[in-house]
Amino acid sequence: MTTGEIFAGVMFLWAMFQQYFPPYIQKYSQKLVSFVYPYIQITFHEFSADRWKRSEDYVAIENYLTASSSTRAKRFKAEIIKDTQSVALSIDDHEEATDEFQGVKLWWASNKTTPKNQSISFHPVADEKRCYKLTFHKQYRDLIVGAYLNHVIKEGKAIAVRNRQRKIYTNNPSQNWYGPHGYEKTVWSYVPFEHPATFETLAMESKKKEEIVNDLTIFCKGKEYHSIIGKAWKRGYLLYGPPGTGKSSMIAAMANLLNYDIYDVELTSVKDNTELRKLLTQTTSKSIIVIEDIDCWLNLAGQRKKKKKEKEESKEKLIPKKGKESESESESESESKESNVTVSGLLNFIDGLWSACGEERLIVFTTSYVEKLDPALIRRGRMDNHIELSYCCFEAFKVLAKNYLDIDSHYLFPTIERLLEETNMTPADVAEHLMPKSITDIDPETACLEDLIQALESAKELEGRVKAEKEAKEKEEEGEEKLEAKKEAKEKEASQLQLLEK
């Protein structure tokens, strides 16, 4: 009989003893056994006492055991990985696996307990309790509690980063955060993030791309630096420019470069500042928190504040006393459904004390109208890097030509370069004209470039007409102002003559 079989038999007998003998006998028997039993046992529970979220240590141990015990355990749980034919194995419930560290043998066991009184539950996962138990000889206590557990946690987290499927999240409406019986549901919903954008495919100047990539690379390696300077490990980016200039593609390229998840925050679905903070606490490290078209939300917030003030001013004048009560009830009901997040709450979200509740996160705002934003919202320290994404230049066009047509040069390139200098067209519009329109074209590259030239010439003519009309209107307004000034001067002169005659 092997040592492992003897150990398994002892553990089985001990489990039976715990289940069928009274607690007071167990108490004294445990004291007695502790004098002769040479092993120590450490338990790692799946959830902490408040059940707020899964223990990070438990998840790291699970990843470590999945990778290291596949040749040592006998029973596994299998899961097919999405979009692949490979199978992910993890040790099954109530299964044991051995491990070895610096010549020391250890035993891991996966346990699950369910309540003895079975009942119908709308949240059955909360009734199950899982844990991992680590057993080792007591003479190696310092080695296992120190070096070994640090090794397991560090390796488990590294495995999670390598194997995780990245996701893009959006916040659920706050009224859906709790189920019908009060248990808490997730505040975020997600789908797999599979956007193909990279910095190599982004249509912009190579120098600017290189600056952004360097900035991001320095940030993701800056844990110790941020700790030394006493600053939260986060960085803000403001992406601004006309619609269609690649702001969303830039965010996707950032996520793909750094291997981060994306949290897309819809502020109109957030009830108040408290719920905004809760959203922040439910995000993970190595993520990008995105608020797109921030100027639109600021406009809504301003209109809401103005509307509320007007209602308060007119309430006393127009509403009778009895009608006032019903009106106030309906108003409070409608206000409870709409967002009451304030600019101050948003500032605390991105730069206050709560912004330091996680680490290694980017916060990205996008806007098409940067001049509408409050300077306090986009100052350095909140939005650290301001990146302008403008109209398509010739260097950006060459990237698009390579992406869509797989060409580096063409005899029509000089014409396109000249037209791009004379007119404004977004990269999205340029890309649309570079997509082949017919499968019967003998020379699809030339056909697409000719289509783009025609579109650029049309845009140039349109800009010329708009500019001419604007100048004509300004001249007309200027002429009207001069005529009005002459008329006023004549009237003034006439009135003065009348006064002199009198």
Which key phrases capture this entry?
51% helix; single chain; four-stranded antiparallel sheet; 13 strands; seven-stranded mixed sheet; 16 helices; alpha/beta; 502 residues
Strand residues, percent: 15-25%
Number of distinct beta strands = 13
Structural class: alpha/beta
Characterize the overall form.
elongated
Rg over CA atoms: 34 Å
Distance between the termini: 135 Å
Helical content stands at 40-55%
Number of helices: 16
What spatial order of strands do you see in the largest sheet?
8-7-10-11-12-9-13
Mean pLDDT: 80
Poorly predicted regions:
121-126
Q: Mind summarizing the main beta sheet?
A: 7 strands, mixed
Element order, helices and strands? Answer: HHEHEEEEEHEEHHEHEHEHHHEHEHHHH
What do these coordinates show?
The protein is of the alpha/beta class and 502 residues long. Helix content is 51%, strand content 16%. The protein is built from 16 helices and 13 strands. It has helices spanning 3-20, 23-36, 56-68, 141-163, 206-220, 223-229, 247-258, 273-281, 294-318, 321-337, 343-351, 375-378, 394-405, 413-422, 427-434, 444-501; strands at 39-45, 76-80, 87-91, 96-101, 104-113, 129-137, 167-171, 188-192, 234-240, 261-264, 287-291, 361-367, 385-388. The strands form 3 sheets. It has a 7-stranded mixed beta sheet with strand order 8-7-10-11-12-9-13, with helices on both faces. Strand 10 (261-264), helix 8 and strand 11 form a beta-alpha-beta unit. Helix 13 (394-405) packs parallel to helix 15 and helix 14 (413-422) packs parallel to helix 16. The longest helix has 58 residues, at 444-501.
